[in-house]
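Regression check, adenosine-5'-diphosphate case 949:
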Amino acid sequence: MLTYTLRKLLMLIPMLLVITFLIYVGLELTPGDAVSYMVGPDALANMSQEKLNELREALGLNDPFIVRYLRWLGRALRGDFGYSLTSGVPIKDIVFSRLPATLELSVAALLFSTLLGSILGMASALKKGSIMDVSLTVAGMIGVSIPQFFFALVSILIFSFKLGWLPSGGRTMPGYTTFLDRLPHLILPALVLGITMTAGVMRYSRSSMLDALSKDYIKTARSKGLPEWRVNLLHGFRVALTPVVVLVGFRLPMLIGGSVVVEQIFQWPGIGKEFVAAVRGQNLPLVMMIALFTVTAVLVASFLVDLITALLDPRIRLE
Amino acid sequence: MVYVDTILTVDNLHINFYTNNRCNEAVRGVSFQLKKGRTLCLVGESGCGKSVTASSIMRLLPPLSRIEEGRIIYHSEQGDIHLHELAANGPEIRSIRGAEIAMIFQDPMTALNPVYTVGFQIREAFLYHTKMAKAAMQQKAIELLRSMRIPAPEQRVNEYIHQYSGGMRQRAMIAMAMSCNPKILIADEPTTALDVTVQAQIFDLMNDLQKKHNAAILLITHDMGVVAELAHDVVVMYMGVAVENGPVEEVLTKPAHPYTSALLKSIPVLGQSRSKKLEPIRGSTPDPYNRPQGCQFRPRCDFATEKCLQEPEACSVGENHTVKCWHWEKVLANA
Amino acid sequence: MDRLKMLEKEGLLKSRQGSRAVGKFLQNKLAVLGLMVFAVILLASVFAPLITKYDPAMIDLRSRLSPPSWQHLFGTDKLGRDVFARVLYGGRISILVGFGGALGAALVGVSLGTYAGYKGGWLDRILLRVSEIFMAFPQIILVLLLVSILGQSLWNLLVIFTITGWGSVYRMTRSQMLSIREEEYVQALKAFGLSDALIAYKHMLPNALGPIMVNLTLSTAMFILEETALSFLGLGVPLHIPTWGNILNAAQDLTILQEAWWIWVPVGIVISAFVLSINFIGDGLRDAVDPTQQG
Ligand SMILES: Nc1ncnc2c1ncn2[C@@H]1O[C@H](COP(=O)(O)OP(=O)(O)O)[C@@H](O)[C@H]1O
Ligand SMILES: [Mg+2]
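Current build output:
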């Protein structure tokens, strides 16, 4: 298990290094000079070329590229990601102030879609070829074919404007204190995000369950005289579960990216909305750092998922 | 005619598969009787329907397949049970599975669940057939493993199947099958995945068990050497048909079906002189979706005539020895 | 059901040979339905000028925001442009971008995957790592990142889709090649001394085409969805070009969302129907190509 962990870690680190390098190249290539992020446009206009060069030297901007990269990486590792181009706020502060909202939305959608998707998928597999199976499969196809934003718009039109049951956007209102106050705001975006994901989870758990049910040990379990529920749950479901856990694990960080559209439509103040604003405002440092942040989250999560899989599978755990 | 010591009768069994929108008549007429304390070998090349026949006895056929015709009767102590009429996974067949009839499979690595310990899987077998406390079950599992000559069973019982060696896996599988002292043990090519030396140990073990519990064994193999060594009775299958059926000495020495005879000539049999020339069977196995009319062996048979376009009936060659061939007398004379 | 099949067997021993895959595809009702919907929407877009007399860009301020009528089937938008015409003409661009992106990704992914999968070695290892890096990004994040670097234009979008999509095609092609590589005829060709590229592209690639086609179909659907999402956010195809996403962009305006449903609901349904039809086709293809699945 230890060697397994180390091996996975050894694959993770070079990838992160390459990605940070690429991101840094992107940052360097962006129009404008690092000085301009720090001095402000007015001061910059009045500054003499000599003064500018002095400043560049002092900031180390004239050092070789690789030195600059390493210095940047060092700062990033200490949590200093630079400043937003438009507001001058530290990027770290922006990301961490937006993160809770995105996590709240993602976790809600993830819980919903995982529960619904895996149950429907497994049931579908157990009744393979039945009317229920076919209709669920078709429903799943429809689910992945409707654009998420269209689905969001329709749900806003119906549930917010026509029926007036739920707010159409935002996360909170003045005077709200508890999670329960905010809950109505969460329902629509989480549902929209969750339902589009349910289709994926359902499809995946169906095939995972079918795969498990076709294994020889299912026949062995039956040959011992076990009742069907035990065969299906303990021998089928239990084995089919591992890949579903893996999928869900991968989904969480992907959601941080995947919630971009939903956050935008529902004006949910998370990272995705911030990201769209940054892209629109050509705020490249912020765009790059949010991308770096999500990709790091994805890679770290997939590393953790590997570990969880290993723990669930004695073949790896006991190696 | 049912003998007193007959424990299982399979009579004119037909099984079809309906996969790929086609109909595959995988088993088309298999009959035999399994007797207490004796071993019956089902031989034939791969794909001839041996596993399907074996699975049908326990009603473990995959979906999209079913018993079309024929009977499978288990002569239990409480009277005859018509296995072919029971609901596929219903309570009746479940109470027989594992308790009265048990099965071991070809590849123990895939036939045992990788995510549970061997002990857990053996205990599961007790769960629905006995009323034991968990500790007693664990004790029994350890004993079973010990009787299968697995070293350090107290420790092994809590290990997973991938931690076992190939031979030990199959012994664990047998331990599981024997856990409730079944009257019938069905072994589907139990040693194909194993080395020759381990193979011998496994057969030894099965022999011992048979002597101790007077169990009937249905052994599936494609190895004539195994047949010669272990079988009391033999059923030879070709393309889903049981072409010849009889006591081992009779069938091996006086094969009455051209396929059996050709099979014996094509493989070295223990005890036969080495100088004998091996002759492979000419032609190749037909496509199950494009079967020859009449006798399945006709296109490859040296004795084939017009008459063979009709399905041959079972003819009696000797006591308990039957064959499905129009020309069996010629075959016997030719040998 | 089983009985029917048995009768079939007794009656006519059907031995469907030759175009078994085509037959299997045509048996799949959903795939055929998908093919029909697909064809209708595609043809309507291609022959848009024959179907509608309106110019999608023609502004008519006298008939702004008019609801659907015989004059304007889907009504008109804020500037009085005919929405039906915009949907038809928008389909041209949206389908082009989706298909073009998928095709670009397939070209890059397949040509790299075929060779690297056959040769193996360091080339394959490096490409595998690179594709992993691309695939670690959530798709939309990478797309938006590239949009902000490269800027917004139709061509850039095609390039961006190629960059984001080649990784998965590469991996799929590679794994296909790895299994084909073990087959005997490949060994035989090698023994003849044929060049690697010839063996890989001429002799092995055709046998991997089935899954590649399936992938191409399904990624077309994915890229159409992505284009509409991007354009909806105002970050895809420049707004003056009508595309499905750009038409929907208008619905960001809450009054339009509430009062002028005809501007965004029909186009949303058209997108969904089109993507769904492609998904059905892709699924049907997958079943038809895959020999292990039962029909
Ligand atoms: N799960 C299955 N699905 C479809 N066909 C099967 C299945 N199992 C067996 N068959 C068919 O039944 C026939 C007999 O197979 P089997 O009993 O496994 O042969 P063997 O004698 O090697 O054990 C073969 O033609 C095979 O194609
Ligand atoms: Mg078999």
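Comparison notes: Residues 94 and 221 of chain A are 54 Å apart (CA to CA). Chain A has two domains: 20-77, 91-312. No diff flagged against the previous build.
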